[in-house]
């Protein structure tokens, strides 16, 4: 799959020869050459299997895109950890899957089941990750980048805050109007 995808993307005029590949079937000498192309900046995209997930430290990876799901949550986190290594740059991890990949199966390993829970999480992915790795879940720090679900919740909260603020402003304007009207009528009666 990686070789086919590499040929397809390599044929795109906007990428050209800027696509490197790394997978278990590649001879060791080619793996070394492909990694050198990527690390040297000659290749802007590295297509890889999970073979690249652990033990590699790339400073300038901005995004990891998973085509299909990972074997488990640990693998997904390890592979996603290839991005965001430079503290001055944000890193993103995307998982492009079929909706059927979300469904749990009796044959799922514990780690695979945890990954499916991650995919189906509705509240906070960071909380689920912390629980999975034996950590105490904490509220998001204001300096942290928000995950997708937290971004959605923040956007909803911002809309609610704006609606409440507008409602208060309208109510305040009505009260001020009534106060002025009452004052006007009180002054004119006296």
TrEMBL record:
Pfam family, one: Helicase_C
A single MF term (Gene Ontology): 3'-5' DNA helicase activity
Gene Ontology terms: cellular component: chromosome; cytoplasm
SUPFAM superfamilies assigned: P-loop containing nucleoside triphosphate hydrolases (SSF52540)
Helicase C-terminal domain residues: 1-137
Known EC number: 5.6.2.4
Catalyzed chemical reaction(s): Couples ATP hydrolysis with the unwinding of duplex DNA by translocating in the 3'-5' direction
SMART domains reported in the protein's UniProt record: HELICc
GO BP term, pick one: double-strand break repair via homologous recombination
Enzyme class per UniProt: isomerase
InterPro entries: Helicase_C-like, P-loop_NTPase
Family in the record: Belongs to the helicase family. RecQ subfamily.
Record's protein name: DNA 3'-5' helicase
Source organism of this protein record: Aspergillus puulaauensis
């Amino acid at each position: 799959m990686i070789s086919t995808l590499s040929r397809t993307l390599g044929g795109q005029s906007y990428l050209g020869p800027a696509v490197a590949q790394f997978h278990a079937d590649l001879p060791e000498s080619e793996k070394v050459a492909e990694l050198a192309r990527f690390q040297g900046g000659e290749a802007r995209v590295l297509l890889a299997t999970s073979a690249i997930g652990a033990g590699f430290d790339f400073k300038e990876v901005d995004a990891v895109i998973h085509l299909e799901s990972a074997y488990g949550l640990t693998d997904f986190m390890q592979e996603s950890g290839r991005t965001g290594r430079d503290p001055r740059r944000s890193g993103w991890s995307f998982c492009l899957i079929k909706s059927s990949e979300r469904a749990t199966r009796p044959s799922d390993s514990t780690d695979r089941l945890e990954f499916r829970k991650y995919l189906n999480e509705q509240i906070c992915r960071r909380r689920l990750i912390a629980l999975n790795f034996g950590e105490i879940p904490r509220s998001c720090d204001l300096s942290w980048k928000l995950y997708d679900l937290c971004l959605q919740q923040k956007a909803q909260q911002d809309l609610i805050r704006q609606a409440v603020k507008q409602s208060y402003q309208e109510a305040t304007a009505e009260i001020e109007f009534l106060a002025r009207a009452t004052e006007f009528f009180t002054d004119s009666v006296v």
